[in-house]
Records
---
Amino acid sequence: MLKRVSTLLLPVMFGALALPALAGDLEQPMKKIGFNYKQAVKADDAAAMEKHINEMKAQFDVAKQRNMPAAKKEKFLEGMNEVQTELDASLAALKAGDEAKAREHLAKVDSLKKEYHKYAKQKG
Ligand code: HEM
């Protein structure tokens, strides 16, 4: 009997473990993006800025793979791509030795965040 129960329950248990991964929302990558953004802004040398910007880029790639509300998906992806373009511009400025310009692009990321978080808060 016990064996029978476990045979029935095991797939359910594994299913429950796999579910959060499938339904994975944007919270986890967003937390990392937020953390790395602060670190990039705080950084006082180009190498540290570059490291955190690259981490943000990678986390946007993660975020883009996650489930998003279908009604907002197109808008969200558009926003994430815009942010990544600014991050690339920031990296390019750093490579060219222009930290001030790199910071201007980081500031644009903050406005994009505000703009697109408005869509995130909208119902439906
Ligand atoms: C432009 C595209 C973006 C979109 C579409 C977007 C979307 C979202 C969504 C839907 C959430 C809610 C996640 C949840 O709780 O399930 C969220 C949270 C968050 N986002 Fe974004 N976001 C974007 C850009 C950014 C940027 C650029 C930053 C940082 C610079 C950022 C930082 C955060 C933070 C800190 C949270 C709160 C995470 C938490 O603690 O729950 N986001 N975002």
Note: Confidence is low (pLDDT under 50) at residues 17-23.
---
Amino acid sequence: MTTHEQGGSATRTVSGRRLAALVRDRCADEQLAHDVEVVRQVLPFKVSRHVIDQLVDWKSAPDDPLYRLLFPHRDMLDPKHFRAIERALGDPVALRSAVASVRGTLNPHPGEQLTRNIPHEDGDEVSGVQHKYAQTALVFPRHGQTCHAYCAYCFRWAQFVGHPELRIADEGPRQVIAYLRRHPEVSDVLLTGGDPLVMRSELLEPYIDALLGPGLEHISTLRIGTKALSFHPARLVNDPDAARLLRLLESVTAAGRQLAVMLHVSHPRELEPAVTRQAVAALRAVGAQLWAQAPVVRHVNDDPTVWADAWHAQLMLGIHPYYLFVERDTGAQRYFGLPLQRAYEIYRDAVVRMSGLGRTARGPVMSTTEGKVTVDGVAELPGGRAFALRYLQARVPDVVGRPFYAVWDPAAQWWSELVPFSRHDRGFFPPGARGAGGADRAAAR
Ligand code: SF4
């Protein structure tokens, strides 16, 4: 067990070679422990004491959904990549090269985050900021670029594997604040990572104090993206720094701004521990609005009952269901990914079980380079069957809210696999998307 301090509150975590020892100890399965040792060379894994003691059901491992969410599994790698890493174990030079080559195949920066989302001013990159939608800027505080534990499906996994060229992090609040002062169209700032709540309060204070200060009156909402309530809820309850953090968060609402804590809840069991419920109550007591989101992924939550239970638990705790995302085209997508058709069925079958107040989650949503695209359903059109799609958010605001269509493909898992249904629909896809199908093919017949 390692005591982890990334400029943050002390969390005891297990990572690296101790993971295999933990699995060997808890599951008494040598093959499983070996697989853990192979796969963790490529993708980042870390679990907290809370995860080990309160979330994972060790009697059901490795099939337990929380185990699947957090621990390496051999199916996360293509079998030929698994064998390549396995062969290289024990030879540091060969292993480094094999790991680099396998990581390169896993699309480490989906959505062109390193090229299209980072703003430039006077020819210089504003590091640690992503500004994709006019109203919302994402800020990546340098000390918040890790998490209390790692979700194995994390689309930001590249940040955690120690390659500076794959890392998005700011140079401190000054450059970020200067940028935001020059952008009055920004109403929402999302502090994200990683998880900003790994930071000690004294490191978060300069950001929050500055955001509440002069010149930034246009920032009406401060959002904080976190999975601390699932991985280290004591951070908001009995951590030595908890009281200072809560005072800091309260300063946002006391200043008349909205504080939105964007929780990441993959499975309803994450909301069961008493300490987690205390953390929710503590956040509500300082005036925070709570919103919950997660991707729908195989092995963890690919079941409408799980989503309906999660949304119900969230409503009972005063948390708004927000997004059901589609697993992104990165990392262990081969293990977690689901066809869009299945993701849509899970969303629909879950949402019909909810009362109106529980139907606030949008989904299934793909967070693409162009914007957030939701699958509204399957339509039978004159040219054939189609996915009905809609942008909830977009770089080009004009496309938001307008229905468009892609050729129905029962195997497609991601946006890049979809084909515009007609010439009209091409305008909603990125330049270079595959040619129109459906209606145009029918017209040509
Ligand atoms: S909490 Fe978010 S950033 Fe952290 S590992 Fe999970 S998905 Fe990634």
Note: Residues 147, 150-151, 154, 156, 193-195, 227, 264 surround iron/sulfur cluster (CB under 6 Å).
---
Amino acid sequence: MKMFARRTLLRTLTRQAACVGLGAALLSLPTLAAGAAEVNIYSSRHYDADKLLYAAFEKETGIQINVIEGKDDELIERLKAEGRNSPADVLLAVDAGRLWRAQDAGVLQPVKSAVLEKAVPAEYREKDGYWFGLSARARVIIYNKDSVKPSDLSTYEDLADPKWKGRLLVRSSTNVYNQSLTGSILAAHGAEKTEAWAKGMAANFARKPQGGDIDQIKAVAAGEGDVAISNTYYFARMLNSSNPTEKAAAQKVGLFFPNQKDRGAHVNISGAGIAKYAPNRDTAVKFLEFLATPEAQKIFAEANYEFPVVAGIPSHPVVAAWGDFKRDSLNASVYGQNNAEALKIMDRAGWK
Ligand SMILES: [Fe+2]
């Protein structure tokens, strides 16, 4: 795995000098030299928006951010192996299922922050402060506008109906997004009905699960199937793409928010927790609080097409154009708690 992407002290100071005058930059030197003004992040997010978030935080606070990127499970294993010697302050991850896994592995510590508790709705954070959702995404149905009418669609449950045989596209069950979706079905219906649902889904697959969400959307546009499941930001990214082929594919398909007449569409979060042995705990909390400011929430919304979790922050216009929708209000922790059982069910159902 990569070493921390260290920025030079000189670069930080030069930028501060430009912002606030050389005197202030020199005053901050002892703090930086003491190693107090930095935050070390282990991140499994894979979005360019994060670079903007880090730069905005560094500019505003003069606190240096060092990042190690990796896969969620690798980072959790690394935190476990490093134990008290870990330099990590913050774990940034996509999907509540993963954050819950980190909590369960004992690599996070609880945080009491009035700022975060006020800014982040209760269903998007862990009740004791082990992690906080900082942006949200819905898992929705994408349909081919030529072969499917919105009135043909209703719920996730309905996608298991034989009428969709050979028409459904969805990525593998090894993907945590699908594990969390199945975890939400488990919470709504219990194990027996969830297994019947997963079997129905697998029986309807247009092809063996492969690729990511964007590949499912492209396959619907290409006529390989009629309906797919995808996170919202991937579709928005395609709609706003500078690549004409990708944009044309996105324009062939429509987005449908499922379960609007009952519990609402499945919404998951991307978020962060403080590492158990964070050497820079206070600055790390400051960083999390920064991510819940209107400035950072706008970056999540504009650069990655995610839904801000903080009320009153507008979504990207491409996202806002879909209109309001009803969201499943299940606490995101439940996806984590149900993860192992969800995965077993999907396995047994043949959703590989
Ligand atoms: Fe993603």
Note: The CA atoms of residues 172 and 178 lie 8 Å apart.
